[in-house]
Amino acid sequence: MAGTTLFEKIWQAHVVDEKPGEPALIYIDLHLVHEVTSPQAFEGLRLAGRPVRRPDLTIATMDHNVPTERGPITDLIAKAQLDALRANCEEFGVPLNATGSGREGIVHVMGPELGITQPGMTIVCGDSHTSTHGAFGALAFGIGTSEVEHVMATQTLLQSRPKTMQIRFSGTLPFGVTAKDMVLAAIGKIGVDGGVGYAIEYAGEAIETLSMEGRMTICNMSIEAGARAGMVAPDATTFAYIEGRPGAPKGAAWDEAVARWSALKSDADATFDRIVDIDVTTLTPQVTWGTNPGMVVPVDGTVPDPADFADPTDREAAERALQYMGLEAGTPVTEITIDRVFIGSCTNARIEDLRAAATVVRGKHVASTVRAMVVPGSAKVKHQAEQEGLDKVFLDAGFEWREAGCSMCLGMNPDTLSPGERCASTSNRNFEGRQGSGGRTHLLSPTMAAAAAVAGRFVDVRELG
Amino acid sequence: MRELRQVTSVVAIIDRPDIDTDQIIPKQFLKRIERTGYGQFLFYDWMKEPDFELHKPEFKGAEILLAGRNFGCGSSREHAAWALEDYGFRVVIAPSYSDIFRSNSVKTGIATITLPDAELAELKAALAQRNELTVDMETLTITHPDGLVITFAFDEFAQETLVHGLDDIARTLKRDDAIAAYEAATPGRFDTRTLST
Ligand code: SF4
């Protein structure tokens, strides 16, 4: 019999019930909740008189809506939503890491930080970037609000089994090139719908040598290639990250867990429905030029000419993107000037990301034409960064240093772009209006964003030495 | 959920690829805690453009939307499906969809019909002559008044859910024995309520 993939091992271990011609009923080990996609689900439970079946496998936080400046929340509609989460969590017995608790943060930063994101688990959240947790060898994916309610009521989901794709990154990552560049290059290669219907496993030497932060960055953006889930087989790096965290097994249970987790990898003879190979040795820092994450070029490249796209649909989309982005075909990326810099989001606001960005700006200053901000991914990341003095580095360089939250990744709180403003952003989506109506977003890595802040335009971070 | 058996209507065409859920319903409208009333905010930014497709008088009253590939990509916000439904759409026809949007649509009572490019081209040509279609979810057919008939594949479980307007949760709760048996055989890893930090 042929071997099985990591995905298949986790899937098989979670099938509760299966009927022919129907999606499988799979068990959910952890349900993460935030304020935006949960109120209607709680309301549904209330109307039907149903409890949350497993509050002990559920945990909530406040992230999407919260202001990142200290002081009371002034947006009354946002406040009502946060109040609703608090009341719902109390009513249904769901633990909540509320703003000010010191444990709050972007939901996909919080889970790993608490040690409750573990290998072999199924993890869901009403948020498409739940794929982040796959970095630990978990099957993690985003769901809609009706599914949130379904998980709350039954701790299961009806799911059709996705196909499997393996993306193999071979070679050693060159200086100045990061996990963000790897995933942007992968999306550029397979396209924003290349992963639709698939669960992706990332493998290869360049993945094995990555930190957990880097693996999370890559798994996080699986959904930008259309894949609901992305995952990496757990290894010593994974175990070292989890060990000692609040939710991690302790003592003998830890050793047993590590033994179990060590078996979670695709067998050598396992087959995938699709395999994609990417050699990272020639990879360069990437910058998006358009209005989806697949519209990406190397920093030493130029804005593409729509006329060069063979497919008429792609050509029209490129034309519209250039018009929205206010860019001319053929412009070198390093000649594009920026107005704003955002270092944050569940893609790139972990401690390692902030350290990397700080290295670039230390002793330098943000260009006079640029407004730049750093928004740590969680209260804990913020605290740790402050202990390491990173806040000083950023503040001295002229960055704003904010409280944790999603912030300008989606601009639900007051942190938004004004129409026409151009932003170098470490987040994951450059859709029209994502960071504010009319705003223009370019996605890149934390070091590239930091370098752009100093120069006032995109620069090749490799040239800074 | 409303049943969805048959829809006859004009077809609104937004022939762009990769229409993401941030366009369908921008974030500023996700702060509401209700499930209804999102139709007025559908395609909020694009609606400001005078030549946006949905302003075309001939698309008025459309319950069927025809769109480009990878429709509904991006954010998992079910509000996108709620907004489409509240605006009046019951059926979307496109070459492909994002997985999460497709799942959210079924729960909202919207059928997402996938057609290959060749059939879509035929359909568009027919609609250019006369803009009207009947979509039948029981027989899985699309019928144009001038005679074009297209049959399409649709997930059987999702079809049943839509046609009968079924509630997934009530159906799953009937399988409580299987869930309880799974739980009994699977020891817990942690209790989120007692995590000391
Ligand atoms: S940081 Fe951005 S992408 Fe991540 S959960 Fe928040 S809004 Fe979503």
TrEMBL record, chain A:
Cofactors demanded by this protein? [4Fe-4S] cluster
**Which terms does the UniProt entry file under GO BP?**
L-leucine biosynthetic process
Q: Which Pfam families match?
A: Aconitase
Determine if S-adenosyl-L-methionine is one of this entry's keywords: no
Entry's InterPro entries? 3-IsopropMal_deHydase_lsu (IPR004430), Acnase/IPM_dHydase_lsu_aba_1/3 (IPR015931), Acoase/IPM_deHydtase_lsu_aba (IPR001030), Aconitase_4Fe-4S_BS (IPR018136), Aconitase_4Fe-4S_dom (IPR036008), IPM_dehydratase_rel_enz (IPR050067), IPMI_cat (IPR033941)
E.C. number: 4.2.1.33
Q: Which reaction does it catalyse?
A: (2R,3S)-3-isopropylmalate = (2S)-2-isopropylmalate
Q: Where in this chain does the record put each Aconitase/3-isopropylmalate dehydratase large subunit alpha/beta/alpha domain?
A: 8-456
Keywords linked to the UniProt accession = 4Fe-4S, Amino-acid biosynthesis, Branched-chain amino acid biosynthesis, Iron, Iron-sulfur, Leucine biosynthesis, Lyase, Metal-binding
UniProt-listed PROSITE patterns = ACONITASE_1 (PS00450), ACONITASE_2 (PS01244)
Q: Name one GO molecular function term.
A: metal ion binding
Q: Quote the pathway field.
A: Amino-acid biosynthesis; L-leucine biosynthesis; L-leucine from 3-methyl-2-oxobutanoate: step 2/4
Looking up NCBIfam families in the UniProt record yields:
leuC, PRK05478.1, PRK12466.1
The UniProt family comment states: Belongs to the aconitase/IPM isomerase family.
According to its UniProt entry, the function of this protein is described as:
Catalyzes the isomerization between 2-isopropylmalate and 3-isopropylmalate, via the formation of 2-isopropylmaleate.
The name on file for this protein is: 3-isopropylmalate dehydratase
TrEMBL record, chain B:
Q: Which UniProt keywords apply?
A: Amino-acid biosynthesis, Branched-chain amino acid biosynthesis, Leucine biosynthesis, Lyase
Q: Is the keyword Nuclease assigned to this protein? A: no
Substrates-to-products reaction catalysed: (2R,3S)-3-isopropylmalate = (2S)-2-isopropylmalate
**Main EC class of this protein?**
lyase
Cellular component aspect of the GO annotation: 3-isopropylmalate dehydratase complex
User: Which EC numbers characterise this protein's activity in its record?
Assistant: 4.2.1.33
- InterPro entries (UniProt xref): 3-IsopropMal_deHydase_ssu, Aconitase/3IPM_dehydase_swvl, AconitaseA/IPMdHydase_ssu_swvl, IPMI_Swivel, LeuD
The pathway entry for this protein reads as: Amino-acid biosynthesis; L-leucine biosynthesis; L-leucine from 3-methyl-2-oxobutanoate: step 2/4
Biological processes annotated in GO: L-leucine biosynthetic process
Decide whether keyword Lyase is in the record: yes
Q: Which Pfam families match?
A: Aconitase_C
Q: What are the recorded GO MF terms, alphabetically? A: 3-isopropylmalate dehydratase activity
Aconitase A/isopropylmalate dehydratase small subunit swivel domain location is 4-117
Q: Which HAMAP family match?
A: LeuD_type1
Q: Which family does it belong to?
A: Belongs to the LeuD family. LeuD type 1 subfamily.
Entries under NCBIfam families matching the protein: leuD, PRK01641.1
Assembly, in brief, is: Heterodimer of LeuC and LeuD.
Q: Please describe what this protein does.
A: Catalyzes the isomerization between 2-isopropylmalate and 3-isopropylmalate, via the formation of 2-isopropylmaleate.
Protein name from the UniProt record? 3-isopropylmalate dehydratase
